[in-house]
Design a protein that fits this description.
By secondary structure, the protein is mainly β. 10% of the residues lie in helices and 39% in strands. Strands 10, 11, 13, 15, 17, 19, 21, 22, 24, 25, 27, 28 and 29 form a 13-stranded mixed beta sheet that branches. It has a seven-stranded parallel beta sheet with strand order 12-14-16-18-20-23-26, with no helix packed on it. Strand 28 and strand 29 form a beta hairpin.
């Protein structure tokens, strides 16, 4: 049977149908969304991990040995040249000859170049003019004086001393070594004029080594082409000392032969070891006023000094300034005065190591040691004191001070103070009881092995 709907009935029916279809569509869409949420997408992926990357500094290590020149090289009894003297005889006469093997070994993992220098201690007499020097590269066991031929003669000892070096060479890494035989012979023609003379009080045979252009980086092997040899100098005046303190790239070992008076404050930019002994650097003719030393521009200074009596200062204020600048102090007496001054100050990311010595300041609100602006001071011994009113002996002003040992510490004020985020770490082996002489606003915490003082 065919049923006919009126226009109105058809509209009602279509409306219901549309609603049912819409409802069904909504349900379907909802189910799709639920399924989509739980769906895992599969993208094309890949990965590569590069393991075993290494950044480690190489090791430049050289050994210097000697043996009797009559011995066979492969069975010789080699001795460390840093011990007993290689040539040690005090009764030379015409015709007398001494022969020695020397061996220079590369014990590290970097190629090196070297120079051998003969450095007299004291005045060289004309005796050096009548001592012939023989040099046999590769070494040779000498059976007698007749083995010394003119082809191996490199000149007199005077001519060798006049040269910047006696011998030089380079040795690659991997346990390689250079061997040579050196003989000294007093000329038979030397007469009575040479009796009792000497080559200084004594002399040193010095081996210096530095990097050699063998290893390569991304741009070639010339990055260490300008590597300088260590230099040892003896100075006794301000001008020579200033020159030696500022020779970047060349390690310099300085020995002060006498105290320098009327010394101006000095800056160190080189790599310097300063051997003061019992000598001093003074701003005037009074030992009470020491000259200031500042390490800057990435310089390095190691001070080796002996204790002095009373108010006789080795030097005045000691400063390290800037990232890469470092100062190490082994002994000596140092003092400063003036309001707010510090006898030792590390600034702007520098590092100072105080291993021993005496450090004092007498100014109002003064400090013996200060670490500022991200700098660090390591105190491993020594005496520290302040006598000015309202002073604080150890003062961390935005820097860090680490104390592992102390000989003594005193203050006319507070022993320890930290401000501007500064921190003082004190090993309990150095200070056993909790520090109480601290600046206003400081707190002391216990991390188990250390007292940690922090400021506001």
């Amino acid at each position: 049977m065919i049923e006919f709907y009126s226009k109105e009935e058809k509209i009602v029916t279509d409306s219901k149908k549309t609603k049912r279809e819409l409802a069904a569509s909504i349900v379907s869409l909802t189910l799709c969304l639920v399924m989509l949420v739980g769906l895992t997408f599969a993208w094309f992926t890949d990965s590569v991990t590069n393991k075993g990357n290494i950044i480690k500094a190489g090791n430049l290590d050289v050994a210097f040995e000697w043996a009797d020149g009559k011995e066979a090289l492969d069975t010789a009894a080699w001795k460390d040249a840093s011990g007993d003297a290689i040539f040690n005889y005090d009764a030379w006469e015409p015709g007398y000859t001494e022969a020695r093997h020397v061996r220079i070994s590369n014990k590290g993992n970097l190629a090196l170049k070297y120079e051998i220098k003969i450095v007299p201690n004291g005045e060289v007499s004309k005796l050096a003019e009548v001592i012939d020097v023989y040099y046999i590269k590769g070494g040779q066991a000498l059976t007698g004086r007749t083995d010394l031929v003119d082809a191996n003669k490199i000149g007199t000892l005077k001519s060798v001393l006049d040269n910047p070096y006696a011998a030089k060479g380079h040795i690659l890494a991997g346990g390689n070594a250079d061997v040579a035989t050196i003989a000294l012979k007093m000329q038979e023609s030397a007469g009575n004029d040479y009796k009792g003379l000497s080559i200084g009080a004594d002399f040193s045979i010095q081996l210096v080594a530095t990097q050699y252009t063998n290893e390569s980086d991304s741009f070639g092997s010339d990055y260490d082409a300008n590597a300088g040899y260590p230099v040892s100098v003896a100075v006794g005046n301000q001008a020579d000392l200033d020159t030696a303190l500022n020779n970047p790239g060349v390690p310099v070992d300085i020995t002060l032969t006498e105290s320098i008076k009327d010394t101006e404050d000095m800056t160190v930019t080189g790599d310097v070891t300063l051997n003061l002994g019992d000598k001093a650097l003074n701003q005037n003719n009074m030992d009470l006023v020491g000259a200031d030393l500042t390490v800057a521009n990435g310089g390095s200074l190691i001070i080796n000094a002996e204790a002095r009596e009373g108010w006789n200062y080795t030097a005045g204020k000691l400063i390290a300034d800037g990232v890469g600048s470092s100062l190490t102090v082994n002994g000596g007496e140092y003092g400063d005065s003036g309001m707010g001054n510090s006898d030792v100050a590390a600034r702007n990311g520098s590092i100072i190591y105080l291993n021993s010595g005496s450090f004092e300041t007498s100014g109002y609100k003064g400090h013996a040691v200060t670490a500022e602006s991200g700098a660090t001071v390591y105190i491993k011994g020594g005496k520290y004191g302040t006598s000015g009113a309202s002073s604080s002996t150890v003062y961390a002003n935005g820097g860090t001070i680490v104390i592992t040992a102390l000989d003594s510490i005193r203050a006319n004020g507070k022993l320890f103070d930290a401000v501007n985020g500064g921190k003082i770490v004190i090993a309990k082996t150095a200070v056993s009881s909790k520090p109480t002489s601290i600046g206003a606003g400081c707190t002391v915490s216990d991390d188990g092995e250390n007292w940690v003082i922090t400021g506001a």
